[in-house]
Each structure stands twice: as C-alpha cells, then as structure tokens.
Task: structure prediction
Amino acid sequence: MNELSLSDLQIVLPEIWLALAGMALLMVGVFTSNRSTRLITGLTLVVFIIAGVLVNSGLDGTGFGGLVVDDRFGAFMKTLVLIGAGLTLLMSLGFIRREGMERFEFPVLILFATLGMFIMVSANDLMSLYIGLEMQSLALYVCAAFQRDNLRSTEAGLKYFVLGAVASGMLLYGASLVYGFTGTTSFADLAIILSGSDVSIGAIVGLVFIAAGLAFKISAVPFHMWTPDVYEGAPTPVTAFFSVAPKVAAVALLIRVLTGPFGGLFAEWQQIVFLLAVASMLLGAFGAIAQSNIKRLMAYSSIGHVGYILVGLAAGTAEGINGIAIYLAVYLAMSVGTWGCILAMRRQQRMVEDIADLSGLSRSNPGLAAALAIFMFSMAGIPPLAGFFGKFYVFLAAVNAGLYTLAVVGVLTSVVGAFYYIRIVKVMYFDEPGDAFDRPVGRELSWVVGLSAAFTLLFFVYTGPVLDGAAAASQSLGLVTIGEAQSAVLE
Amino acid sequence: MHAAIVFLPLVGAIAAGLFGRWLGDKLAPIVTCVLLVASAILSWIVFFDVAIEGHVRTIELMSWIDVGAFEVNWSIMVDQLTAVMLVVVTTVSSVVHVYSIGYMSHDPHRPRFFAYLSLFTFSMLMLVTADNFVQMFFGWEGVGVCSYLLIGFWYKKPSANAAAIKAFVVNRVGDFGFALGIMGVFMVFKAVTFEAVFDATPDVAGQSFSFLGMNLDIMTTLCLLLFVGAMGKSAQMPLHTWLPDAMEGPTPVSALIHAATMVTAGVFMVVRLSPMFEQAPDAMIVVAFVGATTCFFAATVGICQNDIKRVIAYSTCSQLGYMFFACGVGAYPVAIFHLFTHAFFKALLFLGSGQVIHAVDGEQDMRRMGGLWKKLPITYAYMWIGSLALAGIPIFAGYWSKDLIIESAFVSDSPMGGYAFWLGVGAAFLTALYSWRLIIMTFHGRPRMSEHAFGHAHEAPRVMWVPLLVLAAGALLGGLPFLGGIMVYHGGHEFFGHSITILGENVIELAHEATPFWVKALVLVVAASGVAAAYIGYMWKPQIPGLLASNFRPLYKFLLNKWYFDELYDWLFVRPAMRLGHGLWKVGDGAVIDGLGPDGLAAATLNIARRARAMQSGYLYHYAFAMLIGVAVIVSWFLFRAWG
Result:
C-alpha cells in the first residue's frame, strides 16, 4: 500500500464530506433529540447540495491504491443518486410528521445510505464494492423497518434483511471464487487477467455469483422476490427512496463491474444479462396487471424498468451505457413524481394505496390527476414524454448491437405494460369519483411532483444537459475495449 | 354556354344542399328550379345550334388525370347525340323540379331533396357530355349515388332503405363490368378518349386474345363487358330487379331517374359506342337477345302488378328492352328516337300517377282506387295521352318510334331479328293491355276506397299539372315526322352525322322501304286488341281475369311473382352471402381472430398475471429458494457449456 497522499483524499472528497457531515448531524440529533428532525432534514439537504457540487468538480482518477475511482460516469450516477435521495427526503417531510416517524435518525440513515451508494459507484476493487454495498444495505434495512410499531413495515424490513444477507453471501462467495482463481481483487488487475484467452471456469462461476448478488440489489428477475413485499410494506417515502437512489447506484455498480474487471468475459455475462433482462421485462409487465395496490404495482413496474435497463447493458456498447444513463435520469424523474402522487393519496388523515381509490381523481383534484397521467403515459413510453426517449435509446442500442430478440421482447412488454399504466389514467378520468383526497397535499410535495411532471413533459424540448451528461458518462468507461474484445472473440 | 348547361344544376345542388338552411324551405326549391329551367333553355339553343346547324364541338375544361400514357380531361363534348340527351335530360328535369315544388310541399326536407335532384341532373349531364370513358364513368357513378340517395330519401322507411341498397348493389354488378371494360379498353387502345378509341377500333376488330385457354375476340369481349354495365344501369334482365323496388322513392324521382334519364344511360352508352359494337357482331346478338327478352318479360309481369307505380316501372323496363334490341339490330338512331319520345310519355305517366297518389293520400294499390276520372279530369287526360303514346297508337309519339323499332327488327338480317320482332309484337299487345288496365282500374268502375278518402280526392295544384303540359305536348307531338322524326330521316345519317356509326346496310332505310304492309298492320292490330282486351277484361266482364287467374294458377303465380327473379337471387346470392358473412363473423372473426387475437391474448395475459401473483407467496424461504434456483440454473448452464 502506498503512502496516503493528498490526491487520494481529493478523489474521495465527496464521500469524506458525507461521512463527516453524517456523523456531525448524528451528534446534533443526539443532543437535541427528536425536536430537531426537521432541522436535520434541512441540513441533510444542504449536505447533499454541497456533495453535488463536490461530485461535479472532483478530479478524475483512482485513489487509495486503486480501491476507488472517480470519473464522469461516477459523477453522473452520483448526481442522480443525490437528486433521488434529496427529492425523496423532501417529499417525506409531511409523511414522517403525520405517521409518527419523526425521528432524527431517518435523514441521517438516508445520508449514510447515500454514502454507501457513493462508495458503490466509485468502487474499483471487490473490497470497496462490498463495503459500499453493505453500508448502503444496512442503512436501508433499518429504513424499511423504520415504523417499528407497524407490522407490515417490520415484516418488510426483516424480509429485506434476510434476503439481502443471502444475496450478500452469494456476492461474497463469488468474490472469493474470483479471488481464488485469479489472485487479485483489484478491478484493473482482474480486467487484464480475465481478458486473456485462458479463463478458468471457476472465475466464471464467481462472476455468476457476483452478478446474482448485484441483481438482487436492482431486483432483476429471478432475484426480485423481495421487491413487491418490501415496496408494499415499507413506509411510502422509504419505498420512494428504494425505487430510485439505490437502484441507480446498483445499476452503476453492475455496469462498472461487468464492463471493467469482467469486460473480457463479455460473451459470458451477456448471456446472464440477456436472461435477466427478458425475465424482468416479462414479469414486470405481466406481474403488474393483477395488482390492486399501487405500491405493489410500482414494484412490478420498477422490475420492468430494470429489464429495459439491462437491455442497454446487454448491448455492451458505449451506446448501450449511454442509453442506460438517459433511462436512469428519466426513470428517476418519473418515479419520484409518481411516488409523490402516491404520497398525496391521503383520505381522512390515512394513507390509501388502492388503485380504485384514484377513481374520479380528475374531478376532485385535476392537477394531481394530470401529473399522474403524465407519469403513467411516460412510463408506458408514449412519445413525446420522457419515458419514450429512455426506452428509445436502449432499444436503439440493442438493435445496433444485433440483439433483435431483446428489442422485440422489450417493445411487446411495453405494450402489455401500457395496459396497466393507462388503466390508472382510465380510473382517474373515467370512473365515478370517490371521496376527495385530503387537501392541501403539502408544499414540498407539490413542488417535487410539479417539477418532475414538468421535466417528464418537457424533456423533449430541452434534452441538452441529460444527453450531454449521459454521453460523457458512457464515454468515460472506455467501453471500446469491450467491443474490440467482442469482435476479437467473433473472429 | 355549354359549360353553363352542365354546371348550373351543380350550382343549384350546392346552393340547396349546403346553404339550404340559410335559403329556407321556400327559396331553395325555387333557386334550383330557376337554374334548371335556365339550363334547359340553353340546352334547346345548343340543340338547334348543333343538330340543325351542325356545330359539333368539344370544350376541354381542365386536365384531370395525367399519369404516363393515361390522360383524362374534364371536357364537354357536344355532338348531335349529346344534344338530344341534353334536351331530354334538362327538359324532363325542369318539369320534375317544378312539379316537385307541389308534390313535396309537405316534406320537411325539401332543400335536401332538391339538392339531390340537381346533383343528379349535373351527374347525368357529365355523363352525356363526356368525351372519354373515365368522365362517363364519373357521371355514371354520380347518377348511381344520386339514385341511391333519392330512392332512400324517406330514410325512415325500412323498405326505402332496402330498395336503395338493392339498387346500389345490383348496379355494382353492372358497374364492375363497365369498369373492367374501361380497363380493357385502355389496355388494348392505350387511350380512353372516344375519338382515339374509335379511330383505332377497325384495326383491332377481328383480333383475339387467350384467356384461361379460350380464344376470345377482343372487341366482343370489350363490348360485352361494357354492355354488362349498361344492363345494370338500364335494368335489363337479369339485372332488372332493382328498378321496381326503386319505386319506394318519391314519384318525381321515379319519373326523372327511373323512367326518363338515368335508366336510359345504358342505351345512350351503347349508342355512343356504336363504332365498337358495330365491330363486334356477336356482342350485338347478345344485346338484341337481352333487349328483346326483357321487353317481353317485363310486359308479362306488368299485367299482373297491382301497384300503380310498379306497373309503370315494368313498363319502363320493357320499353328499355325495345331500345336495346333496336341497338342490337343496328338501328341506333331509332333507339335514341324511342328514348326521346319515351322520356316524355313515361315521365308524363309517372307524374300523372304521382298526381293520383297525391290525390288519394299516398295510396299506390290500384285495387283500392277506381272511379277517379270525375275527380281528376286533368290527370285522367294526361294518363290517356301517356298511355296512347306508350301503346303506340298512331299520331302519338310512341307510335312513330316503337313501330320503327319493330319494323327494323323485322327487316334486319341479324340472327336475332325474328326473335326480337315476335317478342316485340307480343310485348306491344301486353303494353296496350296493362296500360288500359291501369287506366280502368284507377279511373273507372266504382270507387274501392273509403268514402272519406274518395271525398277528399282532389285535382293537383297548378304548380303540378301545368308543367306536365310540356310533357303532354311531347307525348302528343314528339314523334311527328317533322319534329322528333327528323332523327330517323334517311336512316339517321343526316341528323346524327358522325356521332353514330352504322356499318353495312342501314336497317332504318330498309325498314322505311321494305316493310311489308302486313307488319305495319299487325303492330296496329295488336295494340288495338290490347286496348280492347283491357276493356273487356276489366270493364265489361270483370270476372274474366279472375277466372283466368284461377284456371291458370301456376302461370298467374309465376307472373305475379315476377318470374321468381327475386326469390332466385335470394336463394342464389343473398342467402349464401349472408351465410358466408355470418360464418366469417361468428367463426372467422369471433372465434378465430378474436379468440386467438384480442380476447385470447387478453385471457392469456390475465392468466400469466395471476400465476405471477401466485408465485409471490410471501414466504421468505420461497424467495430465497427462487434466488438459489436462479443462480443454480445459470451456473449449470456455464458448467455444461464448459464441459459438455
């Protein structure tokens, strides 16, 4: 191990900032107790904003002897994570106050989870990968069970914890296999060793286990089983958080692991990703149809979205990663907005979660109905809404990479998916109205929903920042080597 | 001026159709009437200019289609043949327009009615002024559509809708042949203008082509295809079934469309295409056969009908048969001559019967009329004039034209000449019989309607009976040698010039010269005996028809049911088509396409969705098991590939 240098610290400056700020806020909370939850939440948001600045002004390079890496890809993904975490935290303000969740640990836990995600995104070694993953997961287990006196919430937390432990075990087992067969945990060294012609089958089995562990985090089929139960059981703001930030981080990690150290095994992992993508798209589309609870429906919806993201990954090209980056940004906006709408589903001081509760929303709350309709149409992939472009770029990448099967399955499942998305619109606009939801929905919530709706609706007008960022992110991974390796294999 | 004749009715149709609400129920009919009368006056001027002075001309309005070799222009061609049609169409149409002001005075949709009438007139004028096949087809379809709209004018009556659809569908059969014929003409001649085609016709005559292993004569095939179109439009057997049903429309419509103009379009077409038909003798034989057969068949049916308008409808069918067999034996000018006279007396008969119907509150069944002659003296006189003309009693218009047709058939050397002659003579007897049967049943005998209805019966208003004077004059005088008769002077060459082509010997001249006296006498005797038979059977010995009907029951039934054509078609086409449609609907669409497609997919989707939900048991060990199975499957896949 080299001497610790200043540049090492600069590379991980955002992470250090989050860690220090998190510990400081914990102290503040301990000494002021629960009265200051609102203050700490506000401070957390400030911390996020500063972290965002740091992320986007940081250096590119590796630090701590290659344990962590900082590049445009990481910066893009970290920005998405911050936005997702920040917005969901903002939306949760009203909820945690009303539902007796107003404890200062909540924003701090979100903060630490975000720190874990940062480390995941920056991971450049199997060790740092595992540390980041566990750090994130432990914070999320607690979040899921945060309503300790609520049976469903604790059940969700427990399920998530146990299954997460299984997944972590698989990941660790895979990591040890890879280490055993290659003698290194460094991504850079692995990339060199695994791109040789003579790769041991043991390393491939290790790859499968690592991929399975990561697939759990992004809830790809068949490692998705926890998702509907946890989404339904966890407190709604937590679910909103689950559905965006950790997903972005896990996808980023999966991309980094598969295209970096295992880039030489493209032919192998493409088959795995192909399988996961098809299964996820199908289950996401068909599973959602039979749901009556909108949180469960969103769980299946997110499984389907992961399937589409994996289509871009299966392409294994910079174009595919570019598509994923765009898809994640769009997904983030749609998802946050939708969850904001779900958070507004409150009747007589109680949260309601059934799709049927939305009936006639267009008359009792036209603004909310319009926003939700925008999100649903966008998720169904109807142009010119943002969701269309997300799907368009990943399918385009798949077609250009010759993966016609994936593109066709993707389009067909989009059609099936459109059924349940548009059914929500139909319920809102054509069914007889039920009782109106409680007004007002809350200032923060209105802002977040409005902002997301505007982004989703107007994305096609001004795509610049997202497309540029995504392009820079996908370029920085240096995926050309994969393509070359692939063509070398073909020859 | 020529363009004004054609387009004034269109202006009227647009005014009444699109701005009828604005013009109001009173003004809209008047506007269309004024425009049509203007058009009629211009037509007469053009008629004298063209027919007497011989100023034949073609005015090109604009290019319509110009694709490769396929060039079609909108144009107005006025030669002698067109001039005759112009005056017939615009005159009858004007009379009908004015008459309709009275006849339709209680109808709430008058502007629509007059818009249709004017649009029809415009289409008919486009048809007769066409200088190419495609514009003719445009007019052809235009009159078809207007006919459909007008038959179904009282759209709340199911029978009117059914009749409208029937007319449209039956005409479709004919139009299919016509369209095929036009395509064939373009294939053979690489042109669709009459001039180009007629110039090239002699070169093509006698050539043949191979189709399904048969060697077919090109000209015969083309002419027969085109004639199928004429059969549909002119209600010739076996495509006649729509015409009697078309009487569901308002009576002025029947007079204009289904007697005087549209149904004669087929005759006009055959005459217009005489240069082609002359090169196809086999097709001529078919034309003569179909015409003669229809002429006789329709007359037999006419004597057994009880609906006053249906009698006249079958009469029309029969008279059209005369015109066709005239064409078939090569006497085109006579066909047009008869078309001309027929337009007047048949429109007169229809409008007269319209006055009767108007007088007795819409009753059309002659068995519930009778004794009306004192109540409706003017109408009675009109019906007499019309019937005299129709039956071919000397001096009246029909005598000159029909007589000449029968004589032409007699002297013709066509193989169908004899057949056409004898059927024509038979039909002449039947024509006189059913005409006077109509008059006697309607106007004589004791009233067979309710006292109240009889008391209410009244002569039509002046706006209805005055215009008919024009038609009555035509029926009286239209056939005189120095009026309508000029059309057939010296075989018609002088009058028609180049608009009609007759190869070989001119039948008409031959008929003028070589008809034996007994033929002329026979036609007269037959007509007179028809009238006498009607008087005996329906006035003096009313029991005879009943006796005949019961003694010859099968024959009576056969005639009453119109030779069972409708039943035959129903059995042959309608029922199988319905069965096929029902089968395709229930089995093809419902069970197969919906079952496998929308319904089946939806059911399968729901099924999958339920299974997907069932997988979500809620038990941790199930979930963990699924994850492990997933990993195991993938690992096995790679292991088998590595070692297998």
In short: The mean pLDDT of chain A is 89. The interface with chain B takes residues 159, 162-163, 166-167, 170, 201, 204-205, 208-209, 211-212, 216, 222-223, 225-226, 228-229, 268, 271-272, 275, 283, 286-291, 416, 419 of chain A (CB under 8 Å). The two ends of chain A are 40 Å apart (CA to CA). The longest helix of chain A spans residues 151-182.
